[in-house]
Write a structure and sequence with these properties.
The chain is built from 3 helices and no strands. It is mostly helical.
């Protein structure tokens, strides 16, 4: 299901768009989706830096490296 979104653009811009028929609906839809992803990511980063939800843990990296080396063939 989809909704219709209507915007106003100056007449000159509308004429230029018509002259350069470029599949504007798809292009505008893709731009909006990408911009929403950017804004959601920025919001998530801001929220995470303000309120870290999990405490930081310390991990013994030597154990992890040794475990990885044991699994990998030479």
């Amino acid at each position: 299901m989809s909704d219709v979104l209507t915007i106003r653009v100056p007449k000159e811009l509308k004429e230029r768009m018509r002259r350069l028929d470029n599949g504007w609906s798809e292009e505008i839809r893709a731009f909006i989706e990408e911009r929403i992803r950017q804004l959601e990511l920025a919001e998530l980063i801001e929220e995470t830096t303000k309120n870290p939800s999990r405490p930081r843990t310390r991990v013994d990296s030597t154990h992890l490296i040794r475990e990885d080396r044991e699994r990998s063939p030479p």
